[in-house]
């Protein structure tokens, strides 16, 4: 019997973040980070943007597609074009009905256009509270990521995020934090619930690594039997 090939993971970070949010994961397999691309223009929609991200994934390749927060939204869109991908959402959501009330209000009124995207980098302590950061290490990492975030990309992404109609397929495995202030009620829809806030990808990296490695191993075992 041939040994199963190691799993392949494609990781999509959250809004404005990069591969630094994945630095504490320990995944047993081949790992690729899908880096954010600059929008082609201010009106580029998410399906078109996702198609450009999906170009990095061979269509015939079975893989795990992991998206964090806004990256989860893109993971669901990319999966429409890569049906062999198994989607894992971390601190994310599948449609506007799962937004908190302030997100729904911003979606309806369009008031998000009035919020300068440079606001959170200028208020790192406020950002730290919203993201549920509790340690100095995580705070410093969040602060660096916010400082490096491109305001133009943030403005485009927030507009696309709040106008996204959602995706109910493919079915996604969901991991969420108990103290997530940005998406506070999504634990009801999650198979895995971990203590922590919106940045459990950092604070609970060890637990998330165990979950992902176990899922990949179980899937490989089932495929071998089939």
Automatic annotation (TrEMBL):
Pfam families membership: Abhydrolase_6
Every AB hydrolase-1 domain range: 11-208
Keyword annotations: Hydrolase
GO molecular function: hydrolase activity
KW Hydrolase (keyword) present: yes
Coiled coil: none
InterPro entries registered for this protein in UniProt: AB_hydrolase_1, AB_hydrolase_fold
Name of the protein: Alpha/beta hydrolase
Species this protein is from: Hymenobacter segetis
């Amino acid at each position: 019997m041939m040994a199963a090939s190691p799993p392949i993971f494609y990781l999509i970070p959250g809004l404005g973040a990069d591969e630094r949010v994945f630095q504490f994961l320990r995944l047993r397999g081949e790992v690729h980070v899908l880096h954010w691309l600059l929008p082609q223009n201010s009106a580029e929609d998410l399906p078109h943007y996702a198609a450009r991200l999906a170009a990095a994934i061979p269509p015939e390749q079975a893989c795990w597609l992991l998206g964090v927060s806004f990256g989860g939204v893109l993971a669901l869109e990319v999966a429409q074009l890569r049906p062999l991908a198994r989607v894992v959402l971390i601190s994310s959501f599948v449609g506007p009905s799962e937004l908190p009330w302030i997100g729904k209000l911003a979606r309806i009124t369009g008031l998000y256009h009035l919020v300068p995207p440079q606001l959170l980098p200028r208020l790192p302590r406020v950002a730290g509270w919203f993201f549920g950061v509790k340690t100095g290490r995580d705070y410093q990492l969040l602060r660096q990521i916010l400082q490096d975030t491109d305001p133009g990309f943030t403005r485009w992404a927030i507009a696309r995020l709040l106008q996204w109609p959602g995706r109910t397929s493919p079915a996604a495995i969901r991991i969420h934090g108990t103290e997530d202030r940005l998406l506070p009620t999504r634990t009801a829809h999650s198979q895995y619930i971990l203590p922590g806030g919106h940045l459990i990808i950092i604070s609970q990296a060890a637990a998330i690594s165990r979950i992902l490695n176990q899922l990949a191993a179980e899937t490989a075992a089932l495929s071998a039997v089939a």
